[in-house]
Amino acid sequence: EKVMEVQVIEVTKGNLEPLWSKIVKDVKNSIFIALDTEMSGLGPQAQLMKSDLEQRYQGISAAASSRSIISLGLACFEPYSGKEPLAYNVTVYNIIVLCSDPFTIDPGAVSFLVNHGFNFNKQFCNGISYYKGNDRPKEKDKLTMRSLFAEIIKLRKPLVLHNGLVDLVFLYNSLYAELPGTLNSFMADVCEIFPAGIYDCKYIAEFCDRLTASFLLYAFKKTQWKNEALAAAGKICLKVHFKMESEWTVTVPLNVGGNKAISHKNIKGVEICEKYAAYGWCRNGILCKKVHDIDTIVQFHKTSKQKRKRKRTKSSSDTKDVQTLMEQDEIKPTEENANPIKRAVFDNSTNTQGHRSSLDAFMTGYIFATFIASQYTPTPLNENSTTEKENDKKEKFTSEIQYLSRENKTKIVNKLYLSGKPIPLQVTKSKYSKTSKNHNEKLLVCFGFS
């Protein structure tokens, strides 16, 4: 199987200024954007898995206050200039950042990142400096990560994440303002920051596609197969084109394999690592003697599913429409002691050349776009729009995503996956919560009213 190659533009303090207008333009032209953050660690896992959601939020907030973002992946999905529906021009950015405030680095996070080619020398020498919390007066009018994040907020694009609660907390604390004291206030703030909606691909994988596993690599590989099934059935399918416009563009192979790739013909008798197959990580890493290869695991699950189905339906006729081709697996119960957050989605043997956050952002957007393809509804981008100039003049925005029906949108918008919970966290303003003072002041600054 041919490995997909992703075109990634690396952004550092040395080229942020010349790339600034391009990044803003790419976000502006996007139907949606996908973000992923790489952190210096998350601290004690127990704090991130509290059953009480308020306590869980406090634990994630503590991690965001003591740890830092070290890279930010941004994938912009823009309609392709041709007439094909669900064809995108995709621009992927790998933004290297460096927190100017003191922060903690977890040894496990460092080891994992180094194994995947992350260059800490590059980060400390060329990372774009940022600080946490509220704005500092002397930083105004500079081309900074904080001002870039403000530009993204102003453009009001639908935001796509994978297991996004932690990303949102870190982004808020690192590039926006000091975190509010309660989860309700945080949700109210986020609802206003991203009014076009937030989409969590882990929620989609678990509760809509009903995959056996929902970690990023597995979900990505399953959606690739789903897209191939759509194409084979002559249905509308996702098509991705990469823009090659920058001297800072590098080509990164999206090798989503692992250790011990097995031919699909030899799947019988294969011993896959159940821990890795369920959660995308294994304590033994590259030393594990069982199979971690994603293609093999997906094929193994598919074969097992087919065997179970044949036992149940020996006398049933075989339906060969696209729904059968794309048949999804059942949800597997979430294990409470499994790390729910940002755990290794790439096997230790997969070197991402230090571009992991950007590849994760791309895969997240790809999963979301494939979901739209599988639910294809031929509707215009904005039923009420006339011309681009008139829309700009009216200064309106639309939260409608091309080819995503309102019915399907309602099923997935503003629902964040919660590990160990049977329901998602709703991104909404409740009648019992108010937006925070820091947010109210910051939002005015973002839109130039202060």
Describe this structure in words.
One of its GO terms (cellular component) is Cajal body. The chain contains 17 helices and 11 strands. It has 450 residues and is α/β, with parallel strands linked by helices. The strands form 2 sheets. Strands 1, 2, 3, 4, 5, 6, 7, 8 and 9 form a 9-stranded mixed β-sheet that branches.
List keywords for this structure.
450 residues; alpha/beta; Nucleotidyltransferase, domain 5; nine-stranded mixed β-sheet; 17 helices; Znf_CCCH_sf; zinc ion binding; metal-binding; C3H1-type domain-containing protein; zinc
- The total of beta strands comes to 11
Largest sheet: 9 strands, mixed
What would the principal axes of the Cα set say about the shape? globular
Instruction: Encode the helix/strand succession as letters.
Output: EHEHHEEHHEHEHHEHHEEHHHHHHEEH
- For the record, give the distance between the C-alpha atoms at the N and C termini, rounded to a whole number: 54 Å
Helix content: 25-40%
Radius of gyration: 22 Å
Q: Tally the helices.
A: 17
Number of domains: 1
Tell me, rounded to a whole number, the average pLDDT. Answer: 81
- CATH topology heading: Nucleotidyltransferase, domain 5
Low-confidence stretches: 309-350, 383-387, 390-399
Task: Name the CATH architecture.
Answer: 2-Layer Sandwich
The CATH superfamily is known as Ribonuclease H-like superfamily/Ribonuclease H
Percent range for β-strand residues: 5-15%
Could you name the CATH class?
Alpha Beta
- Derived from helix and strand composition plus strand pairing, the structural class reads alpha/beta
